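Workshop exercise sheet. Pairs work together: one partner reads the sequence aloud, the other fills in the structure field after running the prediction. Swap roles for the next sheet.
Pair: D.N. / O.F.
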Amino acid sequence: MNKKILIFVTVILVLTVVLGVAKKLLATQTADITVTVTVRKLSVSVSPATLAFGLVNEGTTTVAGSAIVVTNDGNLTENYDVKLTNPVGWTAIQSGSPSTDQYKLGAIFKTLAPVAGDFVDSEDMISTIFVTSSATLFAKNTDVAGEKGFSVVASATRNLWFGFFAPSLTTVGTQQSITVTLRAS
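Structure field:
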């Protein structure tokens, strides 16, 4: 009889332990963790995407009559890098007076229209390699930072103005297309 009681008590103890462990496993509390991420996005857009100077005389300087609106449509503060691609038959220069089939194309980030004298050779003339905008590059030095093409916060816009310094003489009598490329950095 003692043996039966011992077996019975042992079975009860084992069941109690098993059921207690099972109860704890079934009664476990949960906690959720929300993981968020924002991917860094550099992006720039322009409007309009075309600017026409029309007919200009050889050896003259023309400032565009309207600006290109540049928008930081990324989610970071950006600087704008600027470069151009020469049309066939013409070569951009960054200083001095353009001679035969040479031209200068200047760019200035500025709220209001610049005058021809605002375009500085060493600071505002576009080349065929990317140059990053700054407080002095592609900017009128005396303007406030909020007009310039550097440290542009997300969703902000800037006006980009162009000045064209025509060749003193050209062997190309057809319309030329110069591609200006902006890059967010």
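Discussion prompt: The chain has a mean pLDDT of 92. What would you look at next?
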